[in-house]
Structures are given as C-alpha cells and as structure tokens.
Amino acid sequence: MGALTLTNVTKSFGSTDVIKGVDLQVEHGEFCVFVGPSGCGKSTLLRMIAGLEDVTGGDVMIDGERVNDRAPAKREIAMVFQSYALYPHLDVRANMGLALKQAGVARDEIRAMTDKAAGMLSLDALMDRRPAELSGGQRQRVAIGRAIVRRPKLFLFDEPLSNLDAALRVQTRIEIARLHRELGATMVYVTHDQVEAMTLADRIVVLRAGRVEQVGAPMDLYKDPANTFVAGFIGSPQMNFLKGAALGMRSETVGLRPEHLRPDNDGPISGSVSHVEKLGGETLVYVTTEAHGLLTLRLFGEHDYDVDSVLRLGFDAARAFHFGADGLRLRD
Amino acid sequence: MSIARNQGTLTRSIAAHAALLTWTVIALFPVFVIVINSVKSRRVIFADPLALPTAETFDLVGYQTVLAQGDFLLYFTNSMIVTMASLFFVLLFGAMAAFALSEYRFRGNLLMGLYLALGIMIPIRLGTVAILQMMVATGLVNTRTALVLVYTAQGLPLAIFILSEFMRNVSSDLKNAGRIDGLSEYTIFFRLVLPLVRPAMATVAVFTLIPIWNDLWFPLILAPGESVKTITLGSQVFIGQFVTNWNAVLAALSLAIVPVLVLYLIFSRHLIRGITAGAVK
Fold it and tell me: Which intervals hold domain ABC transmembrane type-1 (chain B) (predicted)?
C-alpha cells in the first residue's frame, strides 16, 4: 500500500472539469513532482490531496486510509506554500509550533521539536523574530521548518521556490533535496519549472488539462517520452519538432533534442542562422528553416556563426523520436 | 528637461493643495463658527457672529448652563453607549458576513451579497414607521437597545460591502496554512484575517461612527424619554419655540464634537498602520 493513492480522482467547478480522472500511486519515501503548464490542474490536485478542495469523484487515500471527507488538519500532512503563508502575528518559534500546540502536544516537547527542526534548517538565530523581520529565503525556510516539525505522513509543496530569486532558488532546491534524503519522507511537489522537476524528483507526473500525460523517472521521461507534449515539456531548451514528410520519413513528426542536431554540410536540413546565444560552456544556435520553422541547436564550447549565414544541419537517425499525427509516439 | 518636469509637478502640487485647502476651509467653517460663538456672550453672538472672542466678549455662560443641567452627562453617556455598542455589532457581524461571502463557495453567494449591499442604496429612514411599530410591539420604545438595533442594521450594508472586498485580498495560502495546522474557522477569522484587514475595519468604523453619533431622527422617534436621550437630542432642550438659549446650544454642540474627534483620531492611526508587510510574499 503506497503512501498516497489517487483512484480516478475528478474535480469540477460547476460545469467545468478541472481534473478529469487521475490515477496515481506514490510509494513511501518517494519524491513525486507534478509538473505541467499553468492551468493544467496540478495545484488543484495538490489542494485536493491536502483537503483544501473537495473531491468531486474518486478516492484519495493517504497511507491506506480514505481521507476524502477528512479535514486537512486530520490528514497528517504538511504543506509549504508559494507565498510562505507565515502567521504575521507570531514569531518564528510559534509559527513552527502552532500545529503541535493545536494538537495538544506538551510545551517542552514542542520546544524540543521546533529546536530540532530549526537546527536542520539553521534557523536557530532567528527563532524570536517575526516574519516581517526575515528575508524571502529565511521565510521559506521557516515555512519548510513548520512542515518538518509536524512529522507528517506526507509533505506537500506548492511551487515553494517561485517567489525566490535565481541563486536562492538553487540553494533552497538543494536544501529540499537534502531534507528529503535525511527525513526519508514522502513528498509531493508541484512546479511549472521542468528543471526543478528533473533535479528533485524520483518520479515525475506530467499533467496537461487535468489529465496525466506520463509518469516516470526524470531520465525515463527524457529518453522515452510518450507523446509530443511530454517530449516538448521535459528538457531545456525544448525539443525540436520536424516534419517527417520533409525529411522523407514515414512518421508525421520527428523530435530531435537540440544537442542531437549538429552542423553537417551534407545534412538534410538547410536554414539560416537567426540568433546565437553564447552561454560559456555551451552555445545555442537558432536556425530558421523553410520546412520546419525555427530549430534550436545546442553545441558544447564556444562557436561563432554570423547571423543570416546559411547552415546545413544533420542528425543521428537513432536519436530521433517519431510521433504520429495524433502526437503519440510511434514505436517500432 | 528634468527641471521642467519638476516645475510641472510643483505647479500641480500647488494646485492640488489649493483645492484641498479650500475644501478644508469650507468644511471646517461651520465647526469654527460654532466653537468661537460658544465662548462668546449672548449679545455678541448676534451682534457680530464671525468675530473672534475678545477679553470683553469672552463668556463661558453656555458651558456653565450645559454642565449645570445635570442630565447632560447622562445624555453624553447614552450617546456613547449607543454609538459604541452599534459600532461593535456592525464591525463584528459585518466582518463575519464579509468573511463568509468572500471565503466560502455556496449556492446564492452572489445574490446574498447583492441583497446585503442593497441597504447602501435604500435609506433606512424610509422604514421609520414600520420600525416604530415593531419597537412598540416588542416593547423596546424608549430603550437604548432600540437605537443600537436600528444603527446596527443601518451600518451593516456598507461594512459588508467594504470588508468583503478587502477580505478577498487576504492571501488564501495563509488561511489554508491555518486550516492545515488545525485552526478552527473562527480562529482563522479572528487571529489571521481580522488583523490583516484592520485598516479596512478602521475605515468602516469611521464611516459608521459619525452618522450614528450625529443622528437626531431615530433618538427623537424611538427614544425621546429623559433617561435614554442622546446628546444631539439633549441639546435640543435649549432650542425653544419662542426662546433659544444659543449659548447653551453652541456649547453643547462643541462638547459633542470632542468624543467623535477622539474616536476618529484613534481609528485613523490604524487607517495608516498596515501589518500585512512580511506576512505573505
């Protein structure tokens, strides 16, 4: 029995179906990331697991118990929000200890547990401050601390890094990964950022328009996408989609990762360079082609191309993904 | 270039201040006339109403009359009780209704909101006769309770309207965090949401407070009894059909300004103070 099981879960607001039947099993200790474009229903699904939204149909089971009609506080979960959602009138210690206080835990014990969580997140020096006196990164650490203190069966993260700046985002991401290892807890994490998904997840759930498109380990999704949506969503820069007919192939669409395209004077694709981005370690070359539109080319090291110069591209046929007219992967 | 722009803003700021100052003078003029005349002798009030009191014309006879009249303190207390009680109920029930309307999805939510806001457009005085009949039927005539009930009803629509707009802006993450931590809906309302909408509460308090304190209509109709008179009604004893004791009337009115002013100053401090900063984002 998994830590979290969703069975044909649906959600409708009036006549609009937001979640259209999701089946999912998350194992104990697993880090599961829901990823998808905005409006795909990933946050709604998380809020349904938390009990903040009613479930229209299907079952939500946490640790083998059906929790559809159970109040959020009784589900033994903890949630970290994008906007931190710290209690403005309480200091850091009280913020972290509030859930335990509500549950009737003794004061000494609360103190011990908050101190322990503070130690893990190096918040010791900040325990008597109010949220208003903390920086963004510190606030989010307090919010994570508040979740840890409860020792929940399930951690829920709702885009926790979206309000942080780039450097802090990487740092906090590493911190969350470390906590997951140390606590061995089950975590469900929602993000629209596929980099976060790839770096944190044991398993990624790709959602689109209220449906699960594909579930799998990050590298499985990267190497073996089920359809054009997953292929395009996972991986950065995005996969190139070429027209099969123009390449003399029988599939409708041919998917090629930017790193699998290469300059090749005898290559089958011809276009003109429209822009070059040098990132130091790698160079991204954008090539406009008549047959396939804009293609991205990723080259390692530093390369120079004149804008508007003509470039022929080739690729390794074994690396190409083939998709049918319906967007689904064609496998031989 | 930047100098020209500075001059532009300077001219605009002078124009804005001139308009505001003019408005302030117009608004304060009647208050000013009441206050200066309340400390002048009767003859000078009529001879030269706009003159400032001088050493010869200075006379506190109005205040002496008012304070000598033993009931004045009682009227004052009545006004205070009625205003504070009404204000308390308007804020409490208004905030609760606003929270329900903004926070919960239920059938008829929008209609209920419209119904509650309708009171802003329909003056409660249109229902005076019906209200009087109800008060007679329930035996509440000549009680302060009657006034508190009417004023609470009168203040609620605007309070709900303003507060529900503000409560919609309170971070839903914060409320949800409270729910996950096991706080009851009442705790979420009183401890998390109310402190964050305090500026809005102060605004509503000021808008509710002033018309209640100044009202003459309902005290006159529902509670004209000697023991429950409010100060605005009490001041009327000095206005007779044939003789009006202007010194006393003006002195009573000047005194009546003080508590409202004090309450306004208390609430306006909260108007400015915002504690949302740092709570979310």
Answer: 76-267
